[in-house]
Design a protein that fits this description.
It contains one helix and ten strands, in the order αββββββββββ. With 123 residues, it is mainly beta. It has one domain: Jelly Rolls. The relative contact order is 0.30.
């Protein structure tokens, strides 16, 4: 099983659990406390599919800039090579699934991983 965990050296959030990992597919369960984010990064060879479980969260993307707000059961896909950041804009802890693939797992940090530059949206 692949156990690569880039967030352990790049950033800290409430919880990220690897639910499934293979050479070409990963499923993560991500929990973000209020105000937390997964900082700007991209995946050169894989898509990110986000599926809301509990609460509301925003997926920010660059080039062009855009924000997609997701709630429970909502889905959004970020294409390979597209910079993105995931943020909890609310006052409650949120939970979502992140399905990454098909392809070798990769994580390319962009910018400051401790204090990423972005424009949070209010709920």
């Amino acid at each position: 099983m692949v156990t690569y965990r880039p967030w352990e050296t790049e950033f800290t959030v409430e919880t990220i659990d690897i639910l499934m990992a293979a050479d070409d597919l990963r499923v993560l369960e991500v929990v973000l406390a209020p105000g937390e984010c997964v900082p700007w990064h991209m995946h050169p060879d894989t898509e990110d599919l986000f599926v809301g479980v509990i609460g509301i969260f925003d997926v920010h993307e660059k080039m062009p800039y855009g924000v997609t707000r997701l709630g429970p059961a909502d889905r959004h896909t970020v294409a390979p090579k597209r910079a993105h950041l995931v943020h909890n804009p609310g006052t409650e802890t949120i939970r979502f699934l992140n399905i990454q693939g098909v392809g070798a797992y990769d994580y390319v940090p962009i910018g400051d991983q401790q204090t990423p530059d972005f424009w949070p949206r209010a709920l």
